[in-house]
């Protein structure tokens, strides 16, 4: 399964390299990979060390470097050839990566530049797929993760929710409103489940624009009609989920996502499905002696392509 994931990511990389001069969209790259577009970014980032669009930008500026040093094309022509909308857009990304402007490189007229690599201030290097897969395939590591992740099938459930827009570290505003409303309706942790849903990937969405739903499950006989002005209502999809139990501080919860997608998923025989992850909240961090949150992270999964074809 790890090799399948690696090969599919390599297909995306090859596609990016062959089409870097053209407009590229996330859903387009997800389609090439045959991964769920909802979770494609996390999987790609786990394998390469950067988001798909950051990888696209890197390939474009690397191509720009070659054209600047090995051709007589104008900088305007190079910008268009490398998929940038303008010379200024090329300049911004180029300087961020190499620490100087395209004009500086062009003025040197070096066919084979030995520009010091340490001048690049890029934030992330692509991970080596072979090294990653070797580490993830460690038998001891595998046994440890298999003991920590449980597969659960759940049915769809009706919930009331309050949406928070902004940093995921400030979701307590939504929870305060939801829990206050839930208490008035007699909906308590003893009889209902409280679920968080992070609707945006923080790697792709500005922190101020991230969406988060604080949810509480509803009893079968609950009538939502009289409450629509106070909260929203929706149905959470059921199905198969991989469940990882987390207990640590709220600010480190993002690591639970990272480890599930970068370590467990690629060798599990499963793929992330096109449903949002669910965060079943099992305590109130403000009441915890150590100020930690206890959360069961539900990652939606389906059988991998090869397993499905083989009828596994």
Distance between the termini: 13 Å
Average per-residue pLDDT, rounded, comes to 82
Rg, rounded, reads: 23 Å
How many strand elements?
9
Summarize the main sheet: 9 strands, antiparallel
Report on the structure:
The chain contains 12 helices and 9 strands. By secondary structure, the protein is of the alpha+beta class. Strands 1, 2, 3, 4, 5, 6, 7, 8 and 9 form a 9-stranded antiparallel sheet that branches. Helix 3 crosses helix 11 (254-264), helix 4 (52-70) packs across helix 6 and helix 4 (52-70) runs parallel beside helix 7. The radius of gyration is 23 Å and the shape is elongated.
List the helices and strands and how they pair.
Elements: H1 2-19, H2 26-33, H3 40-48, H4 52-70, H5 75-81, H6 87-98, H7 102-108, H8 129-136, H9 139-148, E1 149-154, E2 157-165, H10 172-184, E3 194-198, E4 211-217, E5 232-236, E6 239-248, H11 254-264, E7 270-272, E8 278-281, E9 293-303, H12 305-309
Antiparallel strand pairs: 1-6, 2-4, 2-5, 3-4, 3-8, 6-9, 7-9, 8-9
Question: Which terms would index this structure?
Answer:
nine-stranded antiparallel beta sheet; 312 residues; 9 strands; elongated; alpha+beta
């Amino acid at each position: 399964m790890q090799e399948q994931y690696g090969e599919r990511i390599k297909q995306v990389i090859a596609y990016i390299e062959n089409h870097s001069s053209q407009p590229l969209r996330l859903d387009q790259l997800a389609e090439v990979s045959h991964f769920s577009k909802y979770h494609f970014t996390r999987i790609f980032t786990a394998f390469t060390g950067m988001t798909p669009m950051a990888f696209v930008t890197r390939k474009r500026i690397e191509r720009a470097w070659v054209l600047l040093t090995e051709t007589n094309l104008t900088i305007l022509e190079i910008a268009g050839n490398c998929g940038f909308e303008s010379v200024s857009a090329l300049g911004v990304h180029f300087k961020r990566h190499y620490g100087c402007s395209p004009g500086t490189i062009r003025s040197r007229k070096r066919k084979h530049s030995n520009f010091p690599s340490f001048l690049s201030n890029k934030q992330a290097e692509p991970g080596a797929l072979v090294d990653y897969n070797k580490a993830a395939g460690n038998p001891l590591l595998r046994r440890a993760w298999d003991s920590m992740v449980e597969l659960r099938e759940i049915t769809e459930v009706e919930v009331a929710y309050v949406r928070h827009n902004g940093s995921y570290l400030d979701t307590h505003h939504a929870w305060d409103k939801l829990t206050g409303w839930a208490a008035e309706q007699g909906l308590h942790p003893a009889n209902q489940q409280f679920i968080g849903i992070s609707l945006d990937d923080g790697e792709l969405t500005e922190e101020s624009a991230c969406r988060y739903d604080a949810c509480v499950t509803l009893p079968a006989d609950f009538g939502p009609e009289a409450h629509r002005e106070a909260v929203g209502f929706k149905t959470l999809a059921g199905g198969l989920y991989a469940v990882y139990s987390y207990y640590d501080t709220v600010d480190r919860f993002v690591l639970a996502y990272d480890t599930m997608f970068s370590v467990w998923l690629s060798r599990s025989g499963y793929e992330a499905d096109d449903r949002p992850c669910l965060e079943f909240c099992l305590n109130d961090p403000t009441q915890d002696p150590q100020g930690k949150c206890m959360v069961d992270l539900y990652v939606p999964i389906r059988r991998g392509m090869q397993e499905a074809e083989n009828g596994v």
